[in-house]
Amino acid sequence: MELKTYMCLICGWVYSEADGLPDEGIAPGTLWADVPMNWACPECGARKEDFEMMAI
Ligand SMILES: [Zn+2]
């Protein structure tokens, strides 16, 4: 399975499924779909719907 990367459209912060976000309890390998709906961008507070998948 190929892990994807998502970018915040507001501030440009990037979420990598491979890296997760251990500081916020999101383990490496956590799929974007499994990130909690109430999660927000650590930089600007944007919600998941403000993120877009990045083509690598
Ligand atoms: Zn952001």
Task: Describe this protein's structure.
There is one protein chain. This protein is mostly beta strands and 56 residues long. The chain has a single domain (5-54), classed as Rubrerythrin, domain 2, CATH 2.20.28. It is built from no helices and 3 strands. Strands 2-1-3 form a 3-stranded antiparallel beta sheet, with no helix packed on it. A hairpin with a 5-residue loop joins β1 (5-8) and β2. The two termini are 15 Å apart. The model has no long low-confidence stretch (mean pLDDT 96). The structure holds zinc ion.
Write the layout of secondary structure elements.
Elements (H helix, E strand, L loop, with lengths): L4 E4 L5 E3 L34 E4 L2
The site of zinc ion (ZN) has 8 residues, from loops.
Summarize the structure.
With 56 residues, the protein is mostly beta strands.
Outline the low-pLDDT stretches. none
SS content category: mainly beta
Helical content class: under 10%
Q: Please give the CATH architecture.
A: Single Sheet
Neighbour order of strands in the largest sheet: 2-1-3
SS element count, helices: 0
Total tally of structural domains: 1
Distinct small molecules: zinc ion
Mean pLDDT level: 96
Strand content: 15-25%
- Evaluate the radius of gyration: 10 Å
What composes the largest sheet? 3 strands, antiparallel
Assembly of the depicted chains: single chain
> Regarding CATH, which class?
Mainly Beta
Q: Tell me the overall shape.
A: globular
CATH fold annotation = Rubrerythrin, domain 2
Terminal Cα separation, in Å?
A: 15 Å
Order of helix and strand elements from N to C terminus: EEE
Please provide the count of β strands: 3
